[in-house]
Amino acid sequence: MNTVNLFFACDDAYVPFLAVTLTSVKQHRAPNRHYAVRVLHTGISEAGCSRIGKLEEEGFTIGFYNISHRMETLSHRLHTRDYYSASTYYRLFIPELFPELKKALYLDCDLVLETDVAQLYDVELGTNLVGAVPDGMVGSIAEMALYVRNRLGFENPEKYFNAGVLLMNLEAMRAEGFTGIFLELLGRVKFQVAQDQDYLNVICRDRVTYLGYEWNTMPTGIQAAQPKLIHYNLDGKPWHKDGVAYEEIFWDYAARSGCLTQIRSIKRNYTCEQREAAAKQTLDLIGMCVKQAMDSRENAHIHRQIRRVVCC
Q1: Most buried one in 166, 262, 273, 281, CB count within 10 A?
Q2: Is residue 306 pLDDT above 50, yes or no?
């Protein structure tokens, strides 16, 4: 049976939302395919594993992989900010941690599928390292496009992709020495805006199969007319506030996930102050983009380091 290898990175706080994502995947899966879900973590509780494990069924398997040992050696080197945690970096180690796999699809836990995810998994990558969707935030916010152009050195910011939906050619990434390149670049450059996503973009540049926005439609970014995957990124989360685009789709899957009561409680207890703080974080992010885009001296240094490590 042709297997669809799906990866997620999760902690206890995101267990309810991973349950929603997996419920949407199950809703549309093909009965003749095996969907192998692998959840990367550094300490999900037994209760959290049990909650997600209840979604398992024939042809839809779920495994939990504690990668604490690998991450402990790097934790002091991984830069995070605001609502980000070190889990955002887990996807970068999939080629190394799963040498038996040739291909994988990594998905964030704040999204839902509206079609069979196997359609995305089956996209041919050829010799490209990844398949991804141009980042809708960069496409709709000029300050972010300026950052991508000036700090990361992209002549065309529309080539910058969002890593929350990432089809990975693991075989090609290993052949390229992806993990070693990332670790060397990590030692030379600290990206603060999108962290692991920035590393992925500069390492994989020119070896990307670009997918349509229907595979990563964002309420806060460019939207497709008929989205196949909806990604509730940044502060556009229906479990935090009302009026989010596509919120009715999220709540439909939440009602089937077994976590509806918990998610409603999360929303009910999410304060006005927290909503204001989340909105401010997005504004601060945009401000950070402008500040770093204008730092020509640091940008020149970063461009030199990228050329030394990635283009050598």
Answers
A1: 166
A2: yes
